[in-house]
C-alpha cells in the first residue's frame, strides 16, 4: 500500500511539474524550446571560416541557452553594475531581465510600447527604442522616471525607432525604419509621417538631427572602436541586405558611404556589435527568399526557401575589411547580440524564442 502511495505521489508531482511548466510557458507567451549543448570541446557550433578567427574561440567554452519562452527576443543590453541583461520580447510588449548570478529571467517592464533596441548610457541609464504606439526614444532615469528624448522630427512623428547606441561624447544615435508600424505583430499598424527612414543623432543639447537619410529601413548600428566610423545595416538593401560604413567627421557629420558587407540573397542581417579589434559580430539567419520555381514534395508543389534556415541561423563574424572569418551556429535565428559579463567577453545572442550565451576571447568595444 505504501509503495502504491509513493508511486501515486511521484505521478502527482510529475503531473504538477508538467502543469507548472505549461503555465510558465503560457505566461511567457510562447513555447519554450529545449536545448542540448554540445558535449565535446571544442564546440562544433563555433566554426572557423578563416584562421584569424581561431584566437577568439575558447577551446573549453560552448554555447548555452540561458533563457527561452519568448515570441521574438531582441534588443539585448548589459548592465555591468547590476550583472544583468535586459532584452525585449517585442510581440509580448515587455522588456525581460536575465540575472547572471541567479540564472533567473523575470519581467523588467510590462506594457513597454513594443520596445525594440536598448542600451545604457555612460551614466548607467537605460535608453529604449519604443518602436510602436508611442514611436519614441526614452531614457529611464536612475530613480525610475521615464524621460522622452525624441518622438518627432520636423513636426512629424517618428516611424519606429529600432536600434540605439551612445557615443563617448554622450550623443545618442538611433535608426528609424518602419517595422513597428508595418503590421499588428510587433505593435500596431500606422502610416509613416516621415519622407524617409533615417539615422538620427540626439545631441547633448537635446537637438534631434537626421544624419543619414538615404538608407532604406536602417536597422542595427555600431561605432568602430575608435569611433571614426559608424556602421549601419540596410535591411531593405538593393539588391541585398548590407552593412554600410560612414566616416565620422570632426564636426560630427558623416561622409564617405561605403558598403562593407553584402549578405547575398539568402542572409538576413539585423543587429550587430563590434569588438575591440574592430570585428563585426552579426545576427544572422534566412531572409525568407524563395526559389524561383516550386518543388514537388510528393503531396503538393511548394515554394521552398533558397537556403535552409538551419544552415543560416546563428552569428556571422566579419573582420573590419568585411571578410567572413567565423560563424556560431544556433538552433534559432539570431536577431541581435551584445557583449556582457564582468569582462565584456560573454556574447549574449537574442534568437527568436531564446537567449544564448558564449564566452569568447573577444571583448565588446563599448
From TrEMBL:
Keywords: Hydrolase, Metal-binding, Signal, Zinc. The keyword Metal-binding applies. Its cofactor is Zn(2+). One of its GO terms (molecular function) is metal ion binding. It comes from the Bacteria. The active site is at 270 (proton donor/acceptor). PROSITE patterns: TAT (PS51318). It comes from Limnohabitans curvus. This is Gluconolactonase. Residues 1-30 form the signal peptide. A divalent metal cation binds at residues 74, 219, 270. InterPro entries: 6-blade_b-propeller_TolB-like, SGL, SMP-30, SMP-30/CGR1_Lactonase, TAT_signal.
Amino acid at each position: 500500500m505504501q509503495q502504491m502511495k509513493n508511486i501515486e505521489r511521484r505521478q502527482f508531482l510529475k503531473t504538477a511539474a508538467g502543469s507548472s511548466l505549461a503555465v510558465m510557458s503560457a505566461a511567457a507567451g510562447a513555447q519554450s524550446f529545449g536545448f542540448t549543448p554540445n558535449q565535446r570541446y571544442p564546440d562544433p557550433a563555433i566554426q572557423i571560416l578563416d584562421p584569424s578567427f581561431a584566437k577568439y574561440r575558447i577551446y573549453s567554452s560552448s554555447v548555452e541557452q540561458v533563457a527561452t519562452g519568448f515570441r521574438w527576443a531582441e534588443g539585448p543590453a548589459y548592465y555591468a553594475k547590476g550583472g544583468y541583461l535586459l532584452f525585449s520580447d517585442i510581440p509580448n510588449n515587455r522588456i525581460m531581465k536575465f540575472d547572471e548570478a541567479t540564472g533567473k529571467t523575470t519581467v523588467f517592464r510590462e506594457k513597454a510600447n513594443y520596445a525594440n533596441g536598448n542600451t545604457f548610457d555612460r551614466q548607467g541609464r537605460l535608453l529604449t527604442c519604443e518602436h510602436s504606439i508611442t514611436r519614441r526614444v526614452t531614457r529611464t532615469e536612475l530613480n525610475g522616471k521615464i524621460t522622452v528624448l525624441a518622438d518627432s522630427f520636423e513636426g512629424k512623428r517618428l516611424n519606429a525607432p529600432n536600434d540605439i547606441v551612445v557615443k563617448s561624447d554622450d550623443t545618442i544615435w538611433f535608426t528609424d525604419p518602419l517595422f513597428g508600424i508595418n503590421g499588428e505583430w510587433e505593435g500596431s499598424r500606422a502610416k509613416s509621417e516621415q519622407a524617409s527612414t533615417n539615422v538620427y543623432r540626439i545631441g547633448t543639447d537635446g537637438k534631434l538631427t537626421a544624419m543619414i537619410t538615404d538608407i532604406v529601413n536602417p536597422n542595427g548600428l555600431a561605432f568602430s572602436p575608435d569611433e571614426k566610423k559608424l556602421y549601419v545595416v540596410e535591411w531593405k538593401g538593393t539588391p541585398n541586405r548590407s552593412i554600410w560604413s560612414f566616416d565620422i567627421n570632426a564636426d560630427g557629420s558623416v561622409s564617405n558611404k561605403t558598403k562593407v558587407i553584402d549578405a547575398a540573397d539568402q542572409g538576413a542581417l539585423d543587429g550587430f556589435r563590434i569588438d575591440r579589434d574592430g570585428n563585426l559580430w552579426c545576427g544572422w539567419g534566412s531572409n525568407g527568399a524563395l526559389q524561383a520555381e516550386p518543388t514537388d514534395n510528393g503531396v503538393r508543389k511548394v515554394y521552398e526557401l533558397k537556403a535552409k534556415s538551419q544552415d543560416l541561423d546563428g552569428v556571422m563574424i566579419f573582420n573590419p575589411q568585411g571578410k567572413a572569418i567565423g560563424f556560431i551556429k544556433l538552433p534559432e535565428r539570431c536577431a541581435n547580440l551584445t557583449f556582457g559579463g564582468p569582462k565584456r567577453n560573454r556574447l549574449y545572442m537574442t534568437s527568436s524564442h531564446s537567449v544564448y550565451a558564449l564566452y569568447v576571447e573577444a571583448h565588446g568595444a563599448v
